[in-house]
Write a structure and sequence with these properties.
361 residues; 11 helices; 6-stranded parallel beta sheet; 7-stranded mixed beta sheet; alpha/beta; 18 strands
């Protein structure tokens, strides 16, 4: 029978979120119902509330989650009831042109649950990133469930579902940071600090954190930054060059999503260096760069979508590193909150007071 549970929705653009009853169907073919244990409050959820993604209101918010599979539909073999899983928003299809080339992390046909969760009056909900995990239970495609070590703290490892994986992957998967590299990260929230932690893990020797907030720069030092730059007080391009022998960084990760910070990243990289955009821009933003500079500097300008991750490969590996004490996922959790405190967590996020608030159900 369908379940009626509590969930957090955004009913209209800019309106405060609401805790309401929602209806979760039994899983159909290829689907799973997951009892949510934790869900991080990600900036993308705020984008949804503000209409920055699309206008398919009402949204069931939340997507950075971990929980236990409660039921599966016909044909599901990858997970079973009782499995502890991290949810992901890129369930690969296995058949598109990217998957056929052996690059499923770039799958062009990722999928979500076919059925819709609803309000009790039958109004269909749009789940954030196809997940909708600010809820006691959620319905997803089975491929959105990645089984991991059940001994791991869900509040910590659930963050791999979005922000931490995006940042780590931007540095390691997309940027290809290697031992001895110099790395600069512009924007030191959860995603930026995950890029810093990833760069340290793989052996970067110079890691420069750039932000306008000294509190975030201190967090960056805790995650492995060797140098910090407050860009309100210093020109970040000049500072990064000075800290890299006058050359610029091998890899610059832009974790803000603004034209001005992207330009800083472009000019702060070394010749043949790499710029990685992982900050999420809004649709109207544009950037203009001289073509001669693009040509003359060589290297690569890349965008990183979900850290170019493959959840089945990357989630278990990072959970293992966390369990070994080599990748401190717990350090990203600033606080745990209840389901009815999401709106307040958005306010804290806007004031830069937290890396991640995590709903614990």
């Amino acid at each position: 029978m369908p379940s009626t549970v509590k969930g957090v929705i955004a009913r209209a653009k800019g309106a405060p979120v609401e805790l309401v009853d929602i209806v979760v169907p039994d899983p159909g073919p290829g689907e799973a119902v997951v009892k949510v244990e934790t869900c991080g409050v990600c900036h993308t959820d705020l984008h949804y509330r503000e209409g920055g993604i699309n206008d398919e209101f009402p949204f069931l918010l939340g997507h950075e989650a971990a929980g236990v599979v409660e039921a599966v539909g016909d044909g599901v073999t990858e997970v079973a009831p009782g499995d502890f899983v991290i949810l992901n928003w890129r369930a690969v299809c296995g058949t598109c042109r990217a998957c056929a080339k052996g690059k499923p992390q770039y799958c062009f046909n990722t999928h979500n649950a076919t059925q819709k969760m609803t309000l009790t009056d039958g109004t269909e909900l749009s789940p954030a990133l196809g997940i909708g995990a600010f809820a006691e239970k959620t319905l997803v495609a089975a491929g959105q469930c990645t089984k991991v070590d059940p001994e791991a703290d869900p509040a910590a490892v659930g963050l791999l579902g979005c922000g931490v994986m995006a940042g780590f992957g931007a540095a390691v998967n997309t940027g290809g940071v290697r031992r001895g590299d110099s790395v600069a990260v512009i924007g030191c929230g959860g995603v930026g600090n995950a890029a810093i932690a990833g760069a340290r893990l793989v052996g970067a020797t110079t890691i420069i954190a750039v932000d306008v907030d000294d509190r975030k720069l201190q967090w960056a030092r805790d995650f492995g930054a060797t140098h910090t730059v407050n860009s309100r007080e210093q020109d970040p391009v000049e500072a990064i060059r000075e800290l890299t022998g006058g050359f610029g960084a091998d890899v610059v990760v832009e974790a803000v999503g603004r034209p001005e910070t992207y330009e800083q990243a472009f000019y702060a990289r070394d010749l043949a260096g790499t710029v990685v955009l992982v900050g999420v821009p809004t649709p109207e933003l544009e950037v203009t760069l001289p073509m001669i500079e693009i040509f003359g500097r060589g290297g690569a300008l890349k965008a990183s979508w979900y850290g170019d991750c493959l959840p089945s490969r990357d989630f278990p590996m990072l959970v293992d590193l966390y369990r070994q004490g080599r990748f401190d996922l717990g350090a990203f959790v600033s606080e745990t909150i209840a389901l009815d405190q999401v709106e307040g967590a958005f306010d804290e996020m806007g004031r830069g007071e937290v890396l991640r608030s995590v709903v614990r159900l």
